[in-house]
Amino acid sequence: MQAPDVSHLRPFAPTVRGLTEPDHVRDAMRAAGPLVRAETPAGGPAWIVTDPALARRVLTDSRLVKDPAFAPPRWDPVTAGLEATAADQPSLTTLDGSEHGALRKAHAPLLSMRRMEAWSGRVHAIARRLLAELAEGEPVVDLMAGFTTRYPLTVLLDLLGIPLDLVDRAVDGCRRMFSTEPGGQAAAIGALAELAAAGLGGDADGFAAELRERVPEGTTPQQLHYHLFGLIFAGQLTTDASLGFHVARLLGPDPVETAGLAEATLRDHPPAPYTLWRYTADDVELGGVPIPARSPVLVDIQGVNAVPGSGPDLTFGAGPHFCVGARLAVLELNAVAAVLAADHPKARLDGPYGELRVSGIGGIQGRRLDALPVRLRG
Predict the structure, then answer these.
(1) Which protein family is named in the record (predicted)?
(2) pLDDT over threshold 90, residue 81
(3) What is the residue range of 290's domain?
(4) Would you call 45 helix, strand, or coil by DSSP?
């Protein structure tokens, strides 16, 4: 049995479409079968899971690993956008098994429900301050340009104990992560990792200093800085895109219930349309399809989430690699909704909801609104 080839649908191509326009590519992939095959931007095939039940099995299948050392031999790491291998740079996103479990055990308590409840007031205060500063300026502000990146980064630096006068450097570093210049991404990683070290001073008392005490024995300072870089970059990337869709719904033409809206937004507009790459450690069979060793496998998160009755959404994954920062993302979205309702009750979109545009740069990267013009003073 072979998986249907959907390369003609160009599932990894850059996209631009209206916010209310359906995603015909995902509909077509799901119609083609529970597991489909497509040509990757880095060359060679990838297998994409479109069926909810198979997706959950894949996300908990130990035969599929996250370590880029198992990526196809022909792949250029830069072209494919790969992290360093687990041997060169261990991280939550490249380790599996007991090593991943130990590192996750160090991170998880920092982002638990109890800790997020304790930090809720500070997160709301940051949202309130940033939105108030914007409201004092021009009548119309583009929240995608002036808020959705700065807000989650300010929250993250505050939680980590990094001085907030470094937010501008963090914003610049996150933007440079998508640089196409040779060595641009590596330079951005280095800059953000160096910035993260500012939370590790002798009198630091934020999450960064706490993580230093919790990481597995033998973790080097360089590895700790990379873990902190991962928290900053992944935390910003997750919330940035979601905020635009969330605020658009809040200020759109149709009344919405704020209870559960953050979760609904994240389900309908997941920050990443696909999982990060997984690779077959050996020859395997998935859904009756034989797949060779060192083959890339993805779950179509956005497509699976859209299947009626598909169960809990996969926005933050499932199984051992479920995102440790999921509660923080929901808290950040809920805080913005609460502040808009309380402090800016007359806020509205500056233009029709249906004219908002969504763009994606392609590959497995997420999609975000091109712009979100808002009149905070009504």
Answers:
(1) Belongs to the cytochrome P450 family.
(2) no
(3) 7-375
(4) strand
pLDDT in tens, 113-132: 999 999 999 999 999 999 99
CA distance 317 to 330: 15
pTM of the model: 0.94
Segment 150-196, tens digit of pLDDT? 999 999 999 999 999 999 998 888 888 777 676 777 777 788 888 88
Q: Is position 1 within any domain?
A: no
Pairing between strand 296-299 and 45-49?
parallel
Residue 87, domain member (yes or no)? yes
Q: Please, are residues 235 and 195 in contact by the beta-carbon 8 Å criterion?
A: no
Q: What angle do CA 190, 194, 200 make, to 5 degrees?
A: 150
How do 284-286 and 289-291 pair as beta strands? antiparallel
**Counted domains in the chain:** 1
Residue 80's CATH number: 1.10.630.10
In angstroms, the CA 238 to CA 233 distance is 9
Return the bridge partners of 16, or none.
359
Q: Is residue 22 part of a domain?
A: yes
pLDDT tens digits for 277-325? Answer: 999 999 999 999 999 999 999 999 999 999 999 889 999 999 999 999 9
Query: What are the pLDDT digits (tens) for 223-248?
Result: 999 999 899 989 998 899 999 999 99
Q: What is the DSSP string of 257-316?
A: -STTHHHHHHHHS-SSSBPPPEEESS-EEETTEEE-TT-EEEEBHHHHHTSTT--S--TT
In a domain, 2, yes or no: no
Residues 288, 36 contacting (CB under 8 angstroms)? no
